[in-house]
Amino acid sequence: MSATNDLSFQGKVAIITGSGRPNGIGGAIAVALATRGASVTINYVSDSSAPRAAQLAESIKAKGGKATVVRGDVGDPEQAKKLVKETLAAFNTDKIDILVNNAAIAPMTPTVDVTPEEMTSVFHTNFQGPLLLVQAALPMGLHSPVYSALKAALDSLTYTWSLEFGRKFGITVNAIAPGVTKTEISPPDDHPEVLRMLAMTRLEGRMGTIGEIADAVLLIASPLSGWITGQYISVSGGLNWI
């Protein structure tokens, strides 16, 4: 089978959390999967993202794709269940094939200034959210080629889940870790933290693009990566943290 066919997601159902911004990483992943045949759920949480999430879904449908929009806070147990339930109903299916835990909070606050409220908020979305979504999706038959987590904080869970879900359900579990990426909510190019990170890249010394992150998800979610699991995959231009 050709690589082109292996990158087809025809008949697959995907949930991409935090995908309500067309110019964000989640939105780019939703478009990339839908373009290749997947039925995608666009998830958002804030009022400001509602019209853009709807616009993104309509643009996918206008090009012949399948998309639905579900509002929900992934860190809330009932809303996580609702996200899965409404996805199944929208696409008349009994299983979720691809789950991309993209929703995240990434404060630029220096460590010594981080407040307890910020720590709670980050944990709620970045760690508790993916855990709740996995719990909600697994009973629905999640058995795709991939479960993708975009949070370095989930490295240990990525390894643990790859063993547990791989042996039991045949699911591969990988963590995709973007470097500094240009989105509508990213800091300006001259922000000190951006400049510091760009100085550590091994390639062009630029921000990554949302399309480059989406391409990595396509590869990891495809049958071409069926023997890759439990891995932390940096998509960062070779960002050197040492």
From TrEMBL:
GO MF entries: oxidoreductase activity
InterPro entries found in the cross-reference section: NAD(P)-bd_dom_sf, SDR_fam
UniProt-listed SUPFAM superfamilies: NAD(P)-binding Rossmann-fold domains
NADP recorded as keyword: yes
Domain of life: Eukaryota
Keyword list, A-Z: NADP, Oxidoreductase
Entry's family note: Belongs to the short-chain dehydrogenases/reductases (SDR) family.
Name of protein: Putative short chain type protein
Organism annotation: Eutypa lata (strain UCR-EL1) (Grapevine dieback disease fungus)
